[in-house]
């Protein structure tokens, strides 16, 4: 039985998170729910022997994948892994989906002179695509099978709060891994600790160590998965939806352009600042949903981390683009030798990071408004989405949750019929 709980400690939802909603937490339409009931009724009825078992299987699979949204990405990954296992060698085209491509001998002039280097190429898209499915699976599986029961056990009854708890706890789990991973990768390069001069001294960075390349491409896969889910969110977005979309567009542009044009050392620094602040943001929101007594002090510490990472450090990076980009290292545009450190690259990098900084400043303003209300006026008003809580004030997670809904009839009988 879940423990009783009061309203959120801060009285409202903390803004600034960049996570898209999960597929399992999206609203379902009336037509989808009707179709689901129709499928379950069809599966619960006895079928004549002449009816195709194949048709019954596909009806069952469509229903189970509707309720368990992690099944489709798992099936896609299983197909790739199964096909690769038939010939588990680098010659198998599917090798690039699971493992890094383009290994090269160690470079004595690099910061890791004894380690295998990895170049860049089209196969990297296959790696990102496969791990986009991987992050889709892990997110939906953890949210539905682990975090939803945990939210109910913790006494969160409102549907909107359960969904947010699931999304933010998963986000915290992800960044608890990739935040330290990014710091580790950075610590093994000359750019530690945010040494901006080193961004440009050895440019261009054609190759990378295995941990560096894996970190960068896995981040690309994570943000690609987030962008795909965000595009599927067609109903009732939160109030800062436009800023969220802008953030994802800028983020994916920075990832793609920095990787293609060899500015990845700048990219790692930006990744780290956002990953660490996102971890503290997600955990702060989670504590808020749990009405934890430590919510207030932790929220204050989160604001400090946010300002330091997303503003002080990122403004330092932007300042380096204005002052060091041209003066440190090579300065030329050469498509043959793939050297792109020139004026147009400086303008694009500065503009994208400036846009990201503008979005972060907007979110900081909203965060500080919440802090002011909590500390001084104690006004409780949820600004995350348009009147979301008011519409669901009497709605609980048990009342209308189509995704985990059990099928009509005896599920064992359904399985027997297929």
Automatic annotation (TrEMBL):
<feature type="compositionally biased region" description="Basic residues">
    <location>
        <begin position="36"/>
        <end position="48"/>
    </location>
</feature>
<feature type="transmembrane region" description="Helical">
    <location>
        <begin position="347"/>
        <end position="368"/>
    </location>
</feature>
<comment type="similarity">
    <text>Belongs to the sphingosine N-acyltransferase family.</text>
</comment>
<protein>
    <submittedName>
        <fullName>TLC domain-domain-containing protein</fullName>
    </submittedName>
</protein>
<keyword id="KW-0472">Membrane</keyword>
<dbReference type="InterPro" id="IPR016439">
    <property type="entry name" value="Lag1/Lac1-like"/>
</dbReference>
<dbReference type="GO" id="GO:0050291">
    <property type="term" value="F:sphingosine N-acyltransferase activity"/>
</dbReference>
<feature type="transmembrane region" description="Helical">
    <location>
        <begin position="244"/>
        <end position="272"/>
    </location>
</feature>
<keyword id="KW-1133">Transmembrane helix</keyword>
<dbReference type="GO" id="GO:0005789">
    <property type="term" value="C:endoplasmic reticulum membrane"/>
</dbReference>
<feature type="compositionally biased region" description="Basic and acidic residues">
    <location>
        <begin position="409"/>
        <end position="418"/>
    </location>
</feature>
<dbReference type="InterPro" id="IPR006634">
    <property type="entry name" value="TLC-dom"/>
</dbReference>
<feature type="region of interest" description="Disordered">
    <location>
        <begin position="1"/>
        <end position="48"/>
    </location>
</feature>
<feature type="transmembrane region" description="Helical">
    <location>
        <begin position="171"/>
        <end position="194"/>
    </location>
</feature>
<keyword id="KW-0325">Glycoprotein</keyword>
<dbReference type="GO" id="GO:0046513">
    <property type="term" value="P:ceramide biosynthetic process"/>
</dbReference>
<dbReference type="Pfam" id="PF03798">
    <property type="entry name" value="TRAM_LAG1_CLN8"/>
</dbReference>
<feature type="compositionally biased region" description="Acidic residues">
    <location>
        <begin position="384"/>
        <end position="398"/>
    </location>
</feature>
<keyword id="KW-0812">Transmembrane</keyword>
<feature type="transmembrane region" description="Helical">
    <location>
        <begin position="292"/>
        <end position="309"/>
    </location>
</feature>
<keyword id="KW-0808">Transferase</keyword>
<feature type="compositionally biased region" description="Polar residues">
    <location>
        <begin position="21"/>
        <end position="30"/>
    </location>
</feature>
<feature type="region of interest" description="Disordered">
    <location>
        <begin position="381"/>
        <end position="418"/>
    </location>
</feature>
<keyword id="KW-0256">Endoplasmic reticulum</keyword>
<feature type="domain" description="TLC">
    <location>
        <begin position="160"/>
        <end position="376"/>
    </location>
</feature>
<feature type="transmembrane region" description="Helical">
    <location>
        <begin position="125"/>
        <end position="142"/>
    </location>
</feature>
